[in-house]
Amino acid sequence: MTQILQLLMHPLVHLLVALIALLTFIALNGLILVYVERKVAGFIQRRPGPFEVGPHGLLQPLADALKLVGKQLVMPREADRILFWAAPLLSFTPVAICLLPIPFGPHLLGLNVNLGVLLVLAFSGLNVLALCLAGWGSNNKYALLGAARAVAQSVAYEIPLLLSVLCVAFTCGSLNFVDITASQTTHGLLSWNVFSQPLAFLIFFVSALAETNRAPFDLPEAESELTAGFHTEYSGMGFGLFFLAEYSYMIVVCAVASVLFLGGWSGPFFSGHWWMLGKIYALILIMMWFRWTYPRVRFDQLLNICWKWLIPLSLINLLGTALIINLVR
Amino acid sequence: MATIQKTLKGLWSLIVGLKVTGKEFCRPWITVHYPRQEVTNLDSYRGHIDLVPVSANPLKPLCIVCRRCEEICPSGCIHIEGHMPGEEKEAPVRQLLLISNVLLPHSAAREPVCATDKTLRVLDGFTLNYNLCSLCGLCVQNCPVSSLTFSQDVYLAGASRKDFELDLLQRLKGRAGSAKLKHAA
Amino acid sequence: MLDKPSFSLNGDYYSSRFSELGKGEGDTLILNLGPQHPSTHGVLRVIVELDGEYVRRAEPVLGYIHRMHEKMGEVKTYVQYLPNMGRVDYLHALAWNWAYVGAVEKLMGLEVPSRAEYIRVITCELNRISSHLLWWGAYVLDLGGFTPILYAFDDREMLMDILQIPTGSRLTYCYYRFGGVSADLSETFLTQTRSFIERFKTRIPMYHDLVTENMILRGRCEDIGALPVEMARRYGATGPVLRGSGVAYDVRRMEPYSVYDQFEFDIPVGKNGDAMDRYDVRMAELKQSIRIIEQALNRIPDGPFINPDLPDRILPPKGEVYFAVEGARGKIGVYLLSDGSARPYRLKLRAPGFSNLHVFAELAQGTILADAVSILGSLDLVIPEIDR
C-alpha cells in the first residue's frame, strides 16, 4: 500500500497528471473561447451570435469541432508531406509545456521550474517555426507571403516581450513564477506589478497581441488580401489544430501576464484558482474587444511600432528599473 | 515633440474607439430574430403578383384577357390562356404596337373599367414564372382594369424552379375557398 | 524604372506572354487577387506582379459579370428596359433610373411635374446615403475592422425600409417612370424620413469616433494612393475620386439637371487626392445629402407625381441625346440614339466606375500590397456597374 502511495508521489506521475489536466484545460478552453469570441463579436455588432445549436448556441463549438474532425485531410499535390503535416502539430504541442510552470493556485502547479519564464518564452517561440513550415510546405504563394509576414512579425515582437518580462524579473529577483506570485502577495492589491511597472504591462500586452497574431496585428491571416495567409491550404483538423493553437497561445500569454503583472492567484478576499481564471479571462475579453474594434495595422507600420516605439520604450523601462533598484538597495 | 503629441492623440483615439464598441456591446440586438420574430413592414413590399377578384364573385378575376401585361413584361414571365366563349382556345394575336405603351398609374386620371359587363373573353389560365420576374411593376401598372396586385409573400422557399412557377388562377380560387371557409365559420 | 501599364485586346499581359515569363525575369511573384473576394468589391480580378511585397504591375481583368445591359437596351422597348437600370449599379439604383428616364424625357421633350422632381431628389439622395454607408462599411472591412459595416447596415436597413414604402423594393429600385415617378410619397414615408435624419445626425459623430479618427485607419489611408489631377483627367475619373484631388466637379452643380439648382449644398473637396481625402469627401457628402433632403422635405410642392399628359406611346423621335446625373461613384451618363422605333437603336451606359478603376492600375505601381488593397477600396468600385 505504502509502495503504491510512494509511486503516486513520484514527480514523474505528478508531471503526467499535470500534463493531462492541462491538456483537458486547453481543450475545454478552446471550446469555450470559440463560443465567447463569437458571442462577443455578435453583441458588439448588435446581433445574437450563435443561437441555434443548443440553447443559446452553447453546443456550437462542439458542432464545429465535430465538423472539423470529420473532414477529409487534403494536402496539395506538390506540398512537402512531412513539413505540411508537421506544422500544425508543432504549433499545438508546445502549449501544454508552456502552461506547466505557471501556478494556477496556491497548490496547483505542474512543475516548479526555476527558469519558468525562460521555459515559456522558449517554447512559445516554436510557434514561429510552425508558421514557417506551414507557409513553405503548402506550395502556395498566398501561404508563403503570409508565412513570411508572420515570421517577421513574431521574431520582431519577441524582443519587447522579453524586455518587459525582464523588468518584472528585475523587480522580483527571480524567473520562477511561484516566486513572482509570492512577491505580489505582500501588500494586497497594491503590490501587483501592474502598478509598479505599468509601461511594461502595456508593452507586454501589445507584444502578446502581435505574437499570437490577433487583431490589430493579424496581417498574416488577412482575409481580404491573402485569402487566409499561412493556413490557406489547411482544412479539417489541420486547420483545427492551428485554430486551437491560436486560442491556446492566447491563454498562455494571458496566464503569463496575470502571473507577472496581476498577482497570479492572489486576490482580495480569498486566494485561489478562481482569481487566476478570472484574470486570464478578463485579459482575453480585452483581447477580443480589441479585435472587433480596430482595423488591421499595415505590415511595415507593425514592424515600425516594434522597432521604433516598443523596443526603445522597453529598454528605457529596463534601464530605469535597474537604476531604481540599485538606488533603493 | 510633434510626433509624441501626434502619438498621444492617436492613442486617445484608440481608447475612444473602444468606448464606442463597449457601449454598443451593452445595447440590445437590432436584428429581427427570424423565425422567432418577423418583419412588420410588409404592406408596401412588392412580392409576386396575384389576381384581384371581382367584388361580387371571389372566384372570378377582373382580368379581361387583353394581354397587355404579357406583352409589356420585360422578362416574359406571364403566360395567359383565354378564349372567346363559343370558340376554341385561340392563339394570342400579338399587337406589337401595344408594347410601347405606358398607361398612367391607377390613381391618376383613368376611370376604372368595370369588368363584369364588358368582359367577353374568359380567362382559362394565368401562369407567372416567378423565376424570371424582376418585380418591376409594369404589369400591375399597365393593367387597364387593375386586376393585378402585388402580394406580400416574402417567406418563399422552394427546392426547385418548379416551385416558383405559380398558377395565379388557382391561387385566386384557393384564396376564395379559404375565405368562404372563414366566412362559414 | 517601372513602365507605364498598357493594355491590349489579346488578353491580359501575363497570358499573352506565358512562354516568355518566368525565364530569369527576376524574382517576381504573379498573384491573382480575385475574382472571388472575401470583401465586397464584386467579381474583379486583379493580376498583381509582386517583387517581395511591392507591386510592380497591377492589371485589372474585367468581364466576369458582363450581363449585356447595352445589348438588352437594343432588344427591349423603352418601357421594358426600366427594371434593367436598377440592376446596373444596385447600390445607387435610383441614380441610374434617373439617368435613363432623364435621357428619354430629354429626347421626347416630356415635362416632369415639380412634385415628381422633388420626389426624385429626395429618394435619390437617400439612396446616395445608403450607397456611401455601404462603401464605408466595406472599406473598413477590407482594412480589417469587422464591426463598422454592421453599424452601417443598421442605418441602411432603416433606409431600405423607408425607400420600400414608395418603391416596394429594398435594393434594385424600379421606381422612376417617364414623366415622373410611379407612386406618390405617403405620410409614413415623410415621418420616417424625418426621424431617420434626426437619428442619422447622431450616428455620424459615432462613425467619426470609431473609424475616422482612429490612428490605425489613418495610418492605412493617409498618403496612400495620391491621385494627381492630371492623371484623374487622363482617365476621366469623376465623383469623389476626382473631388478628393481638389477638383470641385459635381454634375449637380456644373450641369444642373432637374431642380438641383434650387438647393443649397456644398461640394466637399480634398487636398492631396490620397485615400484619406476620398474618404473625407464621401463622409462630408453624407452631411450634404442630409442638407438637400431637409430642404426638399420642407419645400416639396403639391401636384401630380407623374405627367398627366403622357403620350400613349413611348416613341422618341429620331435623334440622339446624352444625359448625365451625379451618382455616388461619379458621373453616370446615358447616351441614347433613337431611330424613331419602339426600341432604342443604341443605348450606351457610361459607368463612372469604369474610369475610376483604371486609375488603380497606375496608382498601385510601386506600393505595398496592403496599400494597393486600400487604394482599391477607396475608389468605391462596384464591378457590376463596370462590366454592365
List the helices and strands and how they pair.
The complex is a heterotrimer of chains A (329), B (185) and C (388).
Chain A: H1 2-8, H2 11-44, H3 60-70, H4 81-92, H5 94-99, H6 116-124, H7 126-137, H8 141-172, H9 177-183, H10 193-196, H11 198-211, H12 223-226, H13 237-261, H14 273-291, H15 299-328
Chain B: H1 2-25, E1 49-51, H2 68-72, E2 78-83, H3 115-118, E3 122-129, H4 138-141, E4 148-150, E5 165-167, H5 168-184
Chain C: H1 13-16, E1 29-33, E2 45-51, E3 54-61, H2 69-75, H3 82-88, H4 93-108, H5 114-142, H6 148-167, E4 176-177, E5 180-181, H7 187-212, H8 215-221, H9 229-235, H10 240-243, H11 251-254, H12 275-299, E6 319-326, E7 331-338, E8 346-350, H13 352-363, H14 369-378, H15 383-387
Antiparallel strand pairs in C: 1-2, 2-3, 4-5, 6-7, 7-8
Describe it for me?
Chain A has 15 helices and no strands. By secondary structure, chain A is mainly α. Chain A has one domain (2-328). Chain B has 185 residues and is an alpha+beta fold. Chain B has one domain: 2-Layer Sandwich (Alpha-Beta Plaits). The termini of chain B are far apart. Chain C is built from 15 helices and eight strands. In chain C, the strands form three sheets. A three-stranded antiparallel sheet of chain C has the order 1-2-3. A three-stranded antiparallel sheet of chain C has the order 6-7-8. Chain C has a two-stranded antiparallel ribbon with strand order 4-5. In chain C, a hairpin with a 4-residue loop joins strand 6 (319-326) and strand 7. In chain C, helix 4 (93-108) packs antiparallel against helix 5. At the B-C interface, helix 1 of B face helix 3, helix 6, helix 7 and helix 8 of C.
